[in-house]
Every structure is written in structure tokens, then in C-alpha cells.
Predict the structure of Acetoacetyl-CoA reductase.
Amino acid sequence: MSRVAIVTGGTRGIGRAICERLRDERGFTVVANYAGNDDAARKFTDETGIPTIKFDVGDYDAVQDACQKVAGEHGLVDVVVNNAGITRDGTLLKMSYEDWDAVMRTNLGGCFNMAKATFAGMKERGWGRIVNIGSINGQAGQYGQVNYAAAKSGIHGFTKALAQEGARFGITVNAIAPGYIDTDMVAAVPEPVLEKIVAKIPVGRLGKASEIARGVSFLCSEHAEFVTGSTMSINGGQHMY
Ligand code: CAA
């Protein structure tokens, strides 16, 4: 029986690349979560054959229900990739409480909710993989992103703490910190601002979603048994940490 993986925010951008690679390279049964964009989800399934499940990762009860549903339909969840993330950029003076809360709830709360729904099962079976998608901006900070940087930085702390709890049960917990990747999220950054950011990337370009997916696939593999609590930076040299 193949391992069962859920990738949150899995129908577009980095998440989509992760879904395809985990299926093609690792042979996992993959289910992609998404929150709202039904058209993108349909297109994703049409093109990849990978099923989707709609729920809000920030909603604790919805996550519990969804993970049970996936277990019933595909088997107990062995691998979780916490990739779902949103931005609500703005300087502190312009940022509303709602913008703060939505980002914390989705980006960081989602990791807690998904781990709560799946960790006990992984422990019982003596094997599990959790990969959390952090960000260069959680490591280095970013003007206009106190919410996003705090949530992504929180993901890195969450990863190190949960890795210590999972180690004796065969569960590894790692993070990837992507730099600026060629996705819709980065395309939303105003052109002149993005130009300045790209100018600071030593490799001289945006990253590709597939370059993040390769890292996730390695961390989920049998070759990464001894890798836990780590953060893999994939950022073209923009921040060396
Ligand atoms: N450092 C210092 N000052 C800066 C600055 C920086 N990095 N960026 C902008 N400023 C300054 C500007 O020069 C400007 O100063 P003046 O008024 O003196 O000219 C002032 O701050 C206001 O800047 P803006 O005109 O840009 O202000 P705004 O309110 O219109 O927009 C913003 C603010 C929304 C934060 C906008 O600058 C922005 O979108 N920045 C990009 C944020 C970003 O990188 N987001 C990443 C999204 S992708 C992602 O998050 C994925 C990932 O994990 C990497």
C-alpha cells in the first residue's frame, strides 16, 4: 500500500508542484487541499488526476473532519505538507487586525491543525513525515509583512519543537524556507518592488516551484530518516542562514 499524503494549498503554485512530485517520484497517494478556488481545483484534477478536498486549514474542526474523510477514502495520512499560505501585505500602520489574524490563522494555525489531526496516527504506525513550508521572509523579515514574517518565523519554531516530539516515533518534521518563487503570490508584488528584490538574488532569477518540490520530496523519502528539525533554504542565495 502506498503512503498517503495531504498537501495543503495543493492545487496551484508550489503546492501543485509538490503534489505532482510526491506522486511521481515517491509513489504516494496524494490528495490536494484547497480553500476556495473551485475552478483552479477542477483544472488541477483534470490535468493531473490528483483528487482534491476543500477545507479551510485555519478551521480546527474542518481540518479534523477532512483528515478523517481522507483516511476513510484513501487510507490513514502518513505525510503532511503544510504549504497553504496567504499574504495580506501592508506596513504596520496600515495593517488591520483582520489582516494580521487571517495570516496567523492560515499560515501558522494551519500547521497546528493539520498536525493535531494526523500526528497520533503517524505515532501509532511508527512512521510519519511533516514538511512545513516557511519562507525566507520568516528568516530575514520583510518590509510590509509583520504578519507573514511572524507566522512563517513561527513555523520554523513549530518545526523544531514538534521534531523533538516526533523523533522517537519515527516521525520527522522539517521545514523548507523558499525564497521568491515564480508563483501568483510573488506576481502580486508590485513590479518595481519585485525588480529590486530580484536584483538582490545572487542566482539572478526567481525560483521555480519544482525546485521547492524537489526539496520536499527528499525530506519525505526513506533517505531522510536522520533529517529532522531542519530548515532547508531554497532561495538562490538571497539569504544565507
Ligand atoms: N525597506 C525600506 N523602505 C522601504 C522598503 C524596504 N524594503 N520598501 C519600501 N520602502 C519605503 C518606500 O521607499 C517608501 O518610501 P518613500 O515614501 O520615502 O518613497 C515607503 O517605504 C512606502 O513604500 P510603498 O510605496 O511601497 O508603500 P505602500 O504602502 O504602497 O506599499 C507594501 C507597502 C505593500 C509593503 C509594498 O511595498 C509591497 O508590496 N512590498 C513587497 C512586500 C513583499 O515582498 N511581499 C512578499 C510577497 S511574496 C511572499 O511573501 C512569498 C515568500 O514567502 C517570499
About this structure: The mean pLDDT is 97.
